[in-house]
Every structure is written in structure tokens, then in C-alpha cells.
Amino acid sequence: xxxxxxxxxxxxALALFSAFPAEITSWPAFNGTNHDNISTDKGxxxxxxxxGPKLLWKFSKxxxxxxxxxxxxxxxxxxxxxxxxxxxxxxxxxxKLLWQAExxxxxxxxxxxxRSTPVFSEGIVYHISGGGRLAAFDANTGAExxxxxxxxxxxxxxxxxxxxxxTLDGNNLICMPGGSKVLCVALDKKTGKQVWAGDGIxxxxxxxxxTLVTHKGKKMLLTLSAKYALGIDPKDGKLLWKFPYxxxxxxxxxTPVYKDGLVYITSGYGTEDKILKLSDSGDSVxxxxxxxxxxxxxxxxxxxxxxxxxxxxxxxxxxxxxxxxGKEIWKANGVGKGSVTYADxxxxxxxxxxxxxxxxxxxxGYKEKGNFKVESEGSxxxxxxxxxTGGKLYLRHENDLxxxxxxxx
Length: 409
Hints:
Blueprint: H1 2-19, E1 38-39, E2 54-59, E3 70-72, E4 75-82, E5 85-92, E6 97-105, E7 119-121, E8 124-128, E9 133-138, E10 144-149, E11 167-169, E12 172-175, E13 178-179, E14 182-188, E15 194-199, E16 203-204, E17 211-215, E18 218-224, E19 228-232, E20 239-244, E21 257-259, E22 262-265, E23 273-278, E24 285-291, E25 301-304, E26 307-311, E27 318-322, E28 328-332, E29 338-343, E30 346-351, E31 355-360, E32 368-373, E33 387-389, E34 392-397, E35 400-405
Parallel strand pairs: 1-29
Antiparallel strand pairs: 2-35, 3-4, 4-5, 5-6, 7-8, 8-9, 9-10, 11-12, 12-14, 13-16, 14-15, 17-18, 18-19, 19-20, 21-22, 22-23, 23-24, 25-26, 26-27, 27-28, 29-30, 30-31, 31-32, 33-34, 34-35
């Protein structure tokens, strides 16, 4: 009888587990797993109550800066500057501090604070300081495993330091020191030893994080330096193509978008956004169209079903445009210039003034479904990107990390 009871209880537990599967909480890198700003979360709120979703908890010792979070291995990772040091922070899923580790000096130049977001892979966290110190930390303890100094490689950056978050390709970690010696390097992610160094093109690093795509069977890294859009072979660092893309102050911060042989690039200050068409071989590009649609400064864009969503700088407001034609579909003021991410049919728009909106990701017009203000001390702009994973919305500002419950009911 006891055996029958145990079996019955086991089947009941399995049935309950099937009915309520465990949440998958994974956002291991800046812009997410696929570097496309798209969360796989489902079953989220389609509208918010007055005052916004429920605040679950707040952590206020992140250090100052513009990093966002990565979430992996049941931990939350972020970065900030405090007491002249850059700090990488690990929290548990309830906001308890697990460790903080130093990654060189704080960035004290223009707009002080950490820029890069930590990236997680196979038990290691990687982070680049504003001054160009790349370090690897044990994700469980914070112990430093290795470091790589961009300056030692002749690396050069613009006025606002290094802001890139690293790109992982199998066992390799790819990043851009910039300068005349090398443009881009790949390191063994376990040891930090150099695997390859791409030839320099005499251009500084900008503020862009790259993305890996596959074009007609050929893998390539898409990114931007200070003056060029670039296609790089991740096997050996060979420069496949470069396309001149001048902008004010050399600020290229938005990750390129790829679809069906087309590469979308955008920058702020009224710079025209462009589509580049790749050759079948992937070794060259030509301009497909150019327009005044979304001059995205550094808040990122989202591409869904052939449409691009994001906020402009001089071309103010929030925009939806068709990727293949450059046609603007709609424009709205919304919460004003800011950053964006996507989950479960909705855009999460986070303005540089701290206002947050939930907006339908639709090419049928701007439809806002909730709005609230993040109450954080400090006068710095709210430039940290939002993250949605595991039914939670993560928002950073200066020392603070806010975590909200956005699961549907």
C-alpha cells in the first residue's frame, strides 16, 4: 500500500511540474543570448497598473555607471565604479550580495562610471573597465582568473572610454582594443591567451558591442569602430569589409542588425541610418538605402518581423520603420529618448529621464500599455539598458538596481 502511495505521489508531483515548468532565467550577455535585444520570456503582463509593476527588491551598492545586468547560473551580474575602483558585482536572485571584485581603476573622465556589462560563460564572468582592462572572474567566488590590458596592445579609444561588452564565439572571446597595431583580438576565454589579432586599420575603438551572424553559411562578426562599419571573420580576425560611416564625436554605440543579407547601422546626432547589402560571398557590402529615420544614439534597437523599433536622438521620438525599404511606419513622442528591449509581444522603453513605458510591438501604431517613473537618487542620465528575463524587469541607474515582477496573472 505504501509503495502504491509513493508512486501516486510521484506521478502527482510530475504532473504539477509539467503544468508549471521551471522559469528559464538566462540573459548572459549585453543584448541577450543572441545579441538581438529579444527575450524568450512568455506569459508576461500585457498592461501595467497605475504606478507600474510591483517592485520586488532594490540593491543600492552597485557602484556608479551605465552598465546593465546579465543574468545566468541563478546569479545577477553588473558593474559600477566606487572609491576610484571599477567593481564587478554578483547577486543571488533575491538581491543578496554574493561578491564584488575589482577590475582596475574607475573611469573618471567624461560621464564617470562603468560602461561595459559583464558577460557570463561556463562559470566565468568577463568585463572591460572604462580604461580598457579586460578581466575574467570566477562566477561563484569573484576570484580573478586572468586580465588583458588594451593599452599594452596599443589600444586607443574615444573621449568616453571603452564601453564594449565582449562577444563570445565558442572557446574564444572577441573584443576591440582599436588603434594602429590591432583592430580586434580573440582570446582563449579560459586562459586569456591571444588566439589571433586582426590587423589595425588606424581607427579607434568606438562604444559598440559586436554581434555574430551567419550569412549564406559564412559566420562573421558585425560591429563598428570609430569611423567604420565592419565585417570581421571570427576564425582569424581577417577584415572582410569596411564601410565608411562618419558620425559626430565618433560615437557608434548601437549594435548592428542583420536579416537576409541586409545589415542595419545607426548612430546619433542626426547621422543618417543605413542598410548595407552583403555580397553573396560576404566579402563586400554596398549601400542599399540611406535615410533619416532613427538616429539611435546608444539606446539600442529591436528588429521584429522585418521592422526596426527604437528611439531617435535629433530625429526625436520612438520610431517603427521597415527594414527592407527604410520607410517610416509610425513615430510617437512616447517617454522620450531612451533604451529598449523586447519580450512577449511588448517593448520596454526606458527613457534617459527615468520614465518607463510598456508598448505593443506593433507596426500598426504606438500603443502604450503602462508607464511609471523610476525613483532613483542622482542626477546622471538613465542610460542603462532594460533587461527582461525570468518574469522580471531589471532597471539600473547609478548605484541602484531595481527588480520588478512582470509575470502575467
